[in-house]
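Record type: monomer structure entry
Structure origin: computed from sequence
Chain ID: A
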Amino acid sequence: MADYTDKWIALLTGNELYNHIETPNEPHLYNRDFNINVNSLLFLLETSNYIQDPSLWKGSLFKGLDMRNENYSRIIEFHKQNIDFSYSYLKNIYFSKVSFYNCNFFHCTFDNIHFYTCNFSQTKFNNIISIKNNIYFAHTLIDGVFISHSSYLMFDKVGYSSPILISNLLPERIQSFISFMIPFILYKQETKQMLSTIHIINEELSITEEIIDILDEYSMQYNIDLKKIFILHTIDLGESKNDTQTL
């Protein structure tokens, strides 16, 4: 089976000699500036046995994918780790049964992107440039939090969104989930879109109080009142079994 060593070497050489991203607003990116064929790049990524490959340098060669002129949809199914998609324009992609571990989507534009039945762990979406049409997560595991159907992260022309319900998770899981959500919350705030509520239900008041501390910390860091977005409920497990305290 071909290993495409020559293509990997060419891609490595171009990226190493040309890329310059010390100024985030004006990065020099080999893949984008030299119009490197996106299909060829995705083919290399998809056909590489990357999970078993210790060569972490490969993951740094996919910055600046430019799909803005792509007019057809594609389905991507693979399991990857340590891939850096920073500064990419991603368009018309349906990610299905994909696992991303420790991947970066920094400074990206998302144009009609669907993540369906995917698993995200330690993956970041910081400094979103733009969301066009929609970005949609469904039946997806985000840092240990399962989202069965999330229209909260669905962005369309009217900013439609609806609540998410999360129950019985340890504070560290919630902290990872909040960290994952922050870039999307900030983007919606900056673009003056309605912020939907995320309801978190727990059975122990002590856990709820820990989560409040986490929300306070992130609220101060990002200058946004997250307790208006993350609505906390503590279920009363007494005789009634039905009483709920909202904090």
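Annotation 1: The radius of gyration is 20 Å.
Annotation 2: The chain is about 25% helix and 25% strand.
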